[in-house]
Amino acid sequence: MEPSDLREQLLRLYLRLNGFFTSGFIAHSHDPYKNIAEIDTVAVRFPHNSEPERGVEADQSLELSHSYIELAICEAKTEPRFNKALYANIAAIEKLLRWAGMFTEDEVLELAPKVQKILIPEPNPKPKIRRMTPYRGVVIRALPFCMNYPRPRPNQPWLVGSDSAFRFIFSCLSPAFEPRSCGRRYGAAQWAEFEPLIAFFKNWPPQTTPTYKDCEKAMT
């Protein structure tokens, strides 16, 4: 598996375990040989998401809402920034919002510049989640996923780093933390495209949490 593919798979697994539905997205162009922009993952989470039998709450570092739908625009990168092809092109953001199907055309045109603001890199970033105030029951957030950083540095924007991501995924999947209400010893193949990653986390010794380097070495 290529490192870029591994990062994207980890992102989608992390989001799935946090209650999100995920998909990629391509903003199409009139040019038959090009596209305007690509987004690694677009994710949606509904406010009443619950799976208590698992015995694991959602990752607190995400500060997820229990009152609103979450629409997350996500990138799995080596640096916590979005593709310029997306944030510099308001038409690409409009295409994404139309595809999400949550907003009327007038709302798409109103929201697109506001979404653009949370995607454009800040000159003096702070490790604070970039998200919009709720709009018609939906919170739109930017979610950079950077496994080569354990956590955001003081001069970096907010990101999901490898420390919190791997600790959370491991706590969800390792048989060592299996609650009585939810078995974890079934085969990894039942996770379809995530099978190699699931096998990695299930088979890792319980004494220590694996790191991104451990995972990269095993998977690439």
Structural commentary:
With 220 residues, this protein is an alpha+beta fold. The chain has one domain (3-211). 34% of the residues lie in helices and 16% in strands. It has seven helices and four strands; from the N terminus they run αβββαααβααα. It has helices spanning 3-17, 84-87, 90-100, 105-119, 162-173, 195-203, 212-219; strands at residues 21-28, 35-45, 69-76, 138-145. A four-stranded mixed sheet has the order 1-2-3-4, with helices on both faces. β1 (21-28) and β2 (35-45) form a beta hairpin. The longest helix has 15 residues, at 3-17. The protein is globular, with a radius of gyration of 18 Å.
Model regions low in confidence, pLDDT < 50 over at least 5 residues: none
Work out the helix count.
Answer: 7
Q: Assign an overall shape.
A: globular
Order of helices and strands: HEEEHHHEHHH
- Whole-number total of structural domains: 1
DSSP strand count: 4
Largest sheet: 4 strands, mixed
Mean pLDDT across residues:
95
Question: What is the percent of helical residues?
Answer: 25-40%
| Radius of gyration over C-alpha positions, nearest whole angstrom | 18 Å
Strand order of the largest sheet: 1-2-3-4
Beta-strand percentage range: 15-25%
